[in-house]
Amino acid sequence: MKIESLNKKELENYCQRYGIKIQAKNTKQQLLELINRDKFNKITNALKEGKQLELLISQIHLLSEEYAC
């Protein structure tokens, strides 16, 4: 899913679904930055901990759940 194509409300829902903490008055651009930072941090942590495969598998599961709905 291209998060850039989501509107502000959809981005807020995305953040809530994936546990990304947001403030009430975040702009769409700020939400996009928070999401991208969260993804970057998850990748960086997986690399540091040697858990790249686990991250990849979890992302595949999330995508399959999104497309199954």
Describe the protein's topology.
Layout lengths: L7 H10 L10 H22 L2 H17 L1
Helix pairs in contact: 1-2, 2-3
Structural class, by secondary structure, is mainly alpha
Number of strands: 0
Alpha-carbon Rg, integer: 13 Å
User: How many domain modules?
Assistant: 1
Count of DSSP-assigned helices:
3
Mean pLDDT: 93
Net shape = globular
* Low-confidence parts: none
Give an overview in words.
The chain is mainly alpha-helical and 69 residues long. It has one domain. The protein is 71% helix and 0% strand. The chain is built from 3 helices and no strands. It has helices at 8-17, 28-49, 52-68.
Output the keywords.
0% strand; 71% helix; single chain; mainly alpha; globular; 69 residues; 3 helices
Task: Give a brief outline of the structure.
By secondary structure, the chain is mainly alpha-helical. The protein has one domain.
